[in-house]
Design goal:
Helix content of chain A: 40-55%
Largest interface: A-B, 49 and 48 residues
Structural class of chain A: alpha/beta
CATH topology of the largest domain in chain A: Rossmann fold
Order of helices and strands of chain A: HHHEHEHEHEHEHEHEHH
CATH superfamily of the largest domain in chain A: P-loop containing nucleotide triphosphate hydrolases
Shape of chain A: globular
Largest sheet of chain A: 7 strands, parallel
Oligomer: homodimer
Number of domains of chain A: 2
Strand content of chain A: 5-15%
Chain lengths: 310, 310
């Protein structure tokens, strides 16, 4: 399987991602072996986020075609952490995959959430590593919803595109959820609807309020009508411009943030595993005051052998 | 100091809480020693939460007098995690403390937030333990704001009173923030304002929507006008009724939740300490793919000696 993966067999890639999703240690082992055999080329990791109905899928499809026209190999990772079901997503995905089916340079994968976002977030990061190692030039990370989970997931991308529409309330909700702060590029999609210019002014006003000094970098605002590919090229150029603005140092800083995010998730997973194995014993002692929380942590971390992973 | 604490000297209690706030290990050591010398009597821990301006302070003051009339010793822990400043709180606190100054059976303490909520939440739990050990019959835990931090902090109380007012939007915001689900008792304060009955009907309707079967326990709704002590006795009785409904088993379950919360916070603190000490070394290796997150965690947790606490 390692050989097939290294040879560029997409079925090997799909199998690896499934192993990573399942938390199977053969997945991480394979990823490690593959890393030892191949130099990682950094992909451009582009997060696309926004409320349901903002037209993210259509937008991403447009971006895929634009990247393909440049000769780039493209992967899309679609995530819906808010939905425990995948039925709808799978149907939609099939239609989308159909569009790109004949194209070997495009790989689409949707990620079923399994309740625990912690687990999902980790899987997303390791899947990104797998896609990067496989050799895609561009990886789109598409998340549905507006909330902390989107902020978290977006933090693993090199560039975050926040998609809004002139339809009422989008911007307000996004502001409240803190998603505006993570935008590197704003995309006002469905810009043929009334209110697109007003929304653009609102975003600009919010940016001015938030600007700390004249060196603050303002996220570019691009209007698109994804359904007829209007503005797609401009959007891609805005992402490119952000990459130039970031520079090598900026991108490395983002990658270190991604590593920190992954490590934090991994530590929390390990802590949960450790606690779950012994909580029936430790919590009553803590509750009765026989043990302090610090002592309990010491006992958990250093008084017991490392947990056996499933 | 241990002797003074055990003898009931409030200055020793104040000093212990300051040590716990500062994360000084002498605090946890003293708490442990005190536990070894004294049997813990469970206090009634009552969380009071709601948006700023809902009248929580006045309400708590009323409850203090009502508890004192029953001959109970009362402590109040006031927390404002949303504010990085304590100036305003300190002024307000002084006025409040003035009211109860002559009364040895009342102890008020406000907690300055120090940025990291994790740290604050842990301090709150250990301070609760200190107050409980000191021998208060009732501890009010007063939090300002409506958000995840309030939900977290409220989860360490035996009873959670959510304070709302007829003034517009309170209920909607609380519903959105998930604070309605944690209410054991609803208090509609400023019930002399128009809209109190409407708000009560809205809460009841929301409860009916959320009810899973006929055994669902509905949080009681009490209307108060704290400024003239109207409804305070009824509110206290509703809290008593909730304690009866919980029973010993229910209260123990809540205490185990509090222990789980504290332990989770302590694990996260330990993980942060571990990571902070070695992130400059580990993150670049993770970013370059030389190390997997699981390997990094193993190295953090088991490859290094336990971190030295400050």
């Amino acid at each position: 399987m390692l050989e097939r993966f290294l040879a560029g067999d997409e079925r090997a890639l799909a199998r690896l991602i499934s192993l990573l999703e399942a938390g199977d240690i053969r997945g991480t082992a394979l990823l490690r072996d593959a890393r030892a055999h191949k130099t990682v080329q950094r992909s451009h990791v582009i997060g696309i986020t926004g409320a349901p109905g903002a037209g993210k899928s259509t937008l991403t499809d447009g971006l895929i075609f634009a990247c393909r026209a440049r000769g780039q190999r493209v992967a899309v990772l679609m995530i819906d952490p808010s939905s425990p079901f995948t039925g709808g997503a799978i149907l939609g995905d099939r239609i989308r995959m159909g569009k790109h089916h004949a194209d070997n340079g495009v790989y689409l994968r949707s990620m079923a959430t399994r309740g625990a976002l912690g687990g999902l977030a980790r899987t997303v990061v390791s899947t990104l590593s797998a896609l990067e190692l496989f050799g895609f030039d561009v990886i789109f990370l598409e998340t549905v919803g507006v909330g902390q989970s989107e902020v978290d997931i977006a933090s693993v991308a090199d560039h975050v595109v926040v998609v809004l529409t002139p339809a009422g309330g989008d911007a307000v909700q996004a502001f409240k959820a803190g998603i505006m702060e993570i935008a590197d590029v704003f995309c006002i999609n469905k810009a043929d609807l009334p209110g697109a210019d007003r929304l653009q002014r609102e975003i600009r006003a919010a940016q001015e309020l938030g600007a700390h000094d004249e060196h603050t970098h303002w996220a570019e605002i691009v209007q698109t009508v994804a359904s007829n590919t209007q503005g797609i090229t401009t959007l891609l150029e805005a992402i490119d411009a952000h990459r130039v603005w970031l520079g090598e140092a900026g991108i490395t800083a983002r990658r270190l943030e991604r590593a920190r995010f992954e490590l934090n998730q991994a530590i929390q997973d390990a802590a949960r595993r450790l606690l779950a194995a012994r909580e029936a014993e430790l919590l009553p002692r803590l509750e009765r005051g026989e043990l302090s929380a610090d002592d309990a942590v010491r006992e958990l971390l250093y008084g017991a052998p490392p947990p056996v992973e499933s």
